[in-house]
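<context>
A single protein, sequence plus fold
<sample>
Here is the protein in question:
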Amino acid sequence: MTQTDIVNHMADKTGMKKSDAKDFFSALADLATSEVKKNGEFTIPGFGKLVKAERKAREGRNPATGKPIKIPAKTTVKFRVGKAMKDAVGS
C-alpha cells in the first residue's frame, strides 16, 4: 500500500477527512522521532517498538574493486515487531 492508500483507507474507516488522517500520521511520525531521540525507544501499540541502536565501526569491502574500506560507527533505528502482531500474522 502507498501512503495515499493508507490515508484513504483510514479516513474511510474512521470517518475523518483525508487531510486530518494525513495530519495524524505526520504527527505520529514526529512524535516517534522525538521520543526515539529522547528516550531511545517508542512503542506503537498493537504493532511493535522503534528502538535506537548503535552500530560499531567495521571493515567492509567495496563490491566493485574488492578493496577493504572502513565503515564508520553510526546510530540507526530498528523496529521490533510486537508479540500481538507476530501472533496475528503467524496464525
Remarks:
- The two ends are 22 Å apart (CA to CA).
- The CA atoms of residues 36 and 45 lie 15 Å apart.
- The mean pLDDT is 94.
